[in-house]
Amino acid sequence: MQNKVDRYLTPQIQHWLFKGKIIILYGARQVGKTTLSKELLKANSAEDGYFNCEIQSVQTALSQREPLALQQFIGHKKFVVFDEAQQIPGIGEVLKLLADTYPHIQIIATGSSSFELANRSAEPLTGRAITFELFPLSYAELGQVYPAHEKKANLEFWLRFGFYPEVAMAPESDARMLLDNLSSRYLYKDILEFENLKRPDVLVKLLQLLALQVGQLVSYHELANHLKISSATVERYIDLLEKAFVIFRLPAFSRNLRNEIGKKNKIFFYDVGIRNSIIQQYQPLDLRSDKGGLWENFLVAERLKYLQAAGLRPNRYFWRNTSQSEIDYLEEQNGRLHAFEFKYAGRKSKIPGPFADAYPEHTFQVIDNQNFESFVS
User: What is 141-310's CATH number?
Assistant: First the structure.
C-alpha cells in the first residue's frame, strides 16, 4: 500500500506557474502545504528554492527592501517557496518588490494564518497573486492509498479521527495522541501569536461550545452570555478561527419569505477529528449521541473539498423557517437550487412543503452512509 497522496489542488497550481503570478497557498498548519510546495519544486528541478520563514536568518534576509540584497539571498533561482511567509514583517511589500523587479522568478508563499498574510499582502499584491486554499486530506484523495472496500471500511475511523495527513493513515493506537497534540500545539498558534487576545482561555471555551453545536443554529448572543463576553467579541473570535482554517460558516438561504430564517449561521469544522479532539469525544459511532451532527459536518466539509477539486463555486447554504422545517444543505448554481438532507442511517425523507412551494425549480436528495461517495467525490 502506498502512502503518498497526490493532492487534487496540484494541477490547479501547476496551471498558474510561470504566468507572472505569485501563488499564495493558505491552509491550517500540518495539512500538507510544505509537502505540496516541495513536490512542486521537485517537479520543476528546483529543490534548492525552499525557504522556511520560521528560521530567523531567513526572516532577517527577507525583511530587506533592497532588490539587490533580496536577489543575492535568493541567488539565480527561477522558482522559490517562502514557507510560513506570514512570519516575514511586511511580507506583502517584499513579495511586491520581488514580483515587480524579478518577474521571471516564480514565487509560492504559504501561510497558516490567512488573516496575517492577507492583511500584510492583500493591497500590495492586487493583480499580482493567485490564491489557493489547501484543506486536510479528502475522503476521495485517500482512494489513492486504500482500495474501495478498505476506504469504505475506514469511514468510521475518519469520522472519529479526521483527515489530517499524519492522523488519517495512522493506526488507531497512535491517532488520538497525534490528533490531541495537533489540536493543542498548533490549532491556536497563529491566532495567539499575531492577535493580542486578552482571554485566550475564552477562545478554547468558545471552540468547545461550537463543537457541541455542530449542525445547529448558532446564536452569538447566547454564546456571549455563556462566556460572559460581548457578542462583538464572540463574532471577532469566530472570524479569527475561520481565517485560521479551524471553522467555517454556512449561511442561511432566504429570499425574504415572511417565515424564513435569514440571518443565522451554522458553523462547521474543517476537520471532524479536530472537532472531536476539542471535546475529547472519540467513541465509536453507535455509542454517540452526536452522530447526526458529526455526519453533517463530515459531508459539508467533504463537499467543500470536492467542489474545490472540481473547480466549482456554487453558493452554499442551509434553509430553515420559523416552523422548524429545515434543509441541511443547499447549493445554488445557474439559477437552480439543489437541496440535500443528511441521514446517516438512510431513513426516508421528503423535502419540506413550504420550501418546495416557494422554490419549485429544485432538486432533492437524501445523502446517507450508502450513497455518500457520489456526493463527496
Answer: 1.10.10.10
Predicted local distance difference test score (pLDDT) of residue 323: 85
Q: CATH 1.10.10.10: which residues of the chain?
A: 141-310
Q: Is 130 exposed, middle or buried (0-12, 13-18, 19+ CB in 10 A)?
A: middle
3-state helix, strand, coil split of the chain in percent (to 5) is 45, 15, 35
Buried (b) or exposed (e) across 204-218, using 16+ Cβ within 10 A? Answer: eebbebbbebbbeeb
Percent of the chain past pLDDT 70, that is, above it, reads 96
Architecture of the domain made up of 10-133: 3-Layer(aba) Sandwich (3.40)
Q: d(Cα 156, Cα 173) in Å, to the nearest integer?
A: 15
Distance of CA 273 to the CA centre of its chain: 13
Got the DSSP string for 167-194?
HHTS-HHHHHHHHHHHHHHTTTHHHHHH
What's the sign of the alpha-carbon dihedral 130, 133, 139, 143? positive
Task: Give this prediction's pTM.
Answer: 0.93
Backbone angles phi, psi at 240, to 5 degrees: -65, -45
Which tens digits make up the pLDDT trace of 321-336? Answer: 888 889 999 999 988 9
- The total number of residues shown for the chain amounts to 377
Nearest 5 degrees, angle CA 212-CA 314-CA 311? 105
> What SS3 state is found at 133?
strand
Residues 6+ apart with CB under 8 A from 251: 265, 317, 318
Range list for CATH 3.40.50.300 in the chain: 10-133
pLDDT digits (tens, 9 = 90+) for 43-68: 999 999 999 999 999 999 999 889 89
